[in-house]
Amino acid sequence: MNLDALQTFDKSILLAFNGGENIFLDSFVLTLTSAYTWIPLYASLLYLVIKNNENWQKIMLIIGTVALGLFIVNGTNLGIVKPLIARARPLNSPDLQGIVVSVNHYVADGYSFFSSHTANAFVLAVFFSLLVRDRTFSILMIVWSIIVSLTRPYLGVHYPSDVLVGMIFGSSVAVLIYFLYLRMYIRFSDKLHYISTKYTRTGYSFADIDVVICVLILSFIYAAFRAVLSI
Fold this sequence. Notes:
Helix content: 55-70%
Protein name: Undecaprenyl-diphosphatase
Organism: Prevotella jejuni
Distance between the termini: 43 Å
Pfam families: PAP2 (PF01569)
Structural class: mainly alpha
InterPro entries: PAP2/HPO, PAP2/HPO_sf
Radius of gyration: 19 Å
Strand content: under 5%
Number of helices: 8
Number of domains: 1
Number of strands: 0
């Protein structure tokens, strides 16, 4: 398959995802794509870290590792990849003018390739999945990151290929920073495995994990409630 065929396929998937015809879904997606919607989730992840680490050295190690991951993603993407590739967003592409729909006049600045929204979501989802090691938590975090990613083609601000590369890059950075975290953590702690029905094997309380899960679910309910009100 040559480049032209791949670009045609990419545009076809974009048009299949692009919204603008369903008032409920449009509002739902607009709420999900907003970073403000997920502030309670970020706060609950911070709560999980603080509650389950016994000193500030370990807490700051995790916070610093996550910050490093986000810095790598955004620094690489905004500082190097996007200016170098300079791919216009679908809504701004001459080939797609009048074809891609702007949902409630939603726009995004800058270039399209690749999706920072997606990469940032996958950094958080994959890193915390590796950190916490709970199946239900991991599945929900990955599902969350995928849903957040899919809002971007729906809104017409990213191609599916932008999202796919964001997923791969964000996941790769998450794995990289996790092993960096693990290497530094081992230096001042030997408590890597917990044997308890109340904790994961990395020492995270199931009760505190449930708090994060509840916040995540309630955030989706909030988005749905706002969408209902918009009808």
